[in-house]
Model the fold of this input.
Amino acid sequence: MEKHFFSLSLHHGAATECMTLGILEHRGLVELGTDFLSLDELGIYNNFKVDSRRSEFLAGRYIAKEAVRQERPDLFPKSINIVHGVWGFPLIHTPGLHRATVSIGHTQRCAAAIFYSSNTLPVGVDVEEIKESNLQAFKRFISNTEQELIASGQLPSLETMHLIWSAKEAAGKALKVGFTIPENLYAISSIKCEEGFYLISFENLSMLKVIGWVDGDFSICIASPSTWKFGKIKERARA
Ligand SMILES: CC(C)(COP(=O)(O)OP(=O)(O)OC[C@H]1O[C@@H](n2cnc3c(N)ncnc32)[C@H](O)[C@@H]1OP(=O)(O)O)[C@@H](O)C(=O)NCCC(=O)NCCS
Done:
């Protein structure tokens, strides 16, 4: 397993908000044990019947707690309690972190989490493993404009399809409603490349934007308010 942590900053005029992004890459079913889970989390875990869902849940909780501990190393993992709100969004129910925001994404081989010690800005993270077998599912949701963006060839179409899908999931997480609202509300209007990062805008959601990038076999997307500009994304630790 390999974990990486990045510092993210968002700027609006003179205001800056800082967040931590954690990424955990692993080889499949994770063997992390359950000792680091809170009692509430253990309850959620025990309700999952499928091993792969249990594994993704563990990986997501693990990297989310480690992202918290980058900023709050005094906290034991078990004391950080991340529960589900209605529609499944993650909420931190931990003394001292009552205003904090967490967002989680996971695939079979990777988990990502953002920790933000405030709740001023909605943020959402998504990670996707780039593989041909995802294409059939993604193609069903591609609009004509998105098809043109894919054809414009900034990136190979496989990568662009994953970024498009991941951007929609990240936006759904930032809004906390996911795909409880019609999928076409997440239609993408533009993708611009800047220094290896892709800035993605939506036709109907002008209040949000996404920054995305491809890292090896994975696409990573972060949704945040469009009026806030991302600063440099800096790697802060790798283990
Ligand atoms: C948000 C959504 C698009 C994510 O899709 P996904 O395939 O589960 O995506 P990922 O595997 O990358 O991410 C899963 C994580 O997203 C987070 N998440 C789930 N629903 C979320 C929501 N509505 N808003 C924000 N984050 C959400 C959770 O932390 C989840 O991980 P966990 O369950 O292990 O804590 C999808 O779950 C969705 O549309 N959810 C809302 C409706 C729904 O089906 N709810 C079911 C529970 S009531």
Observations:
- The longest strand covers residues 2-12.
- The chain has a mean pLDDT of 94.
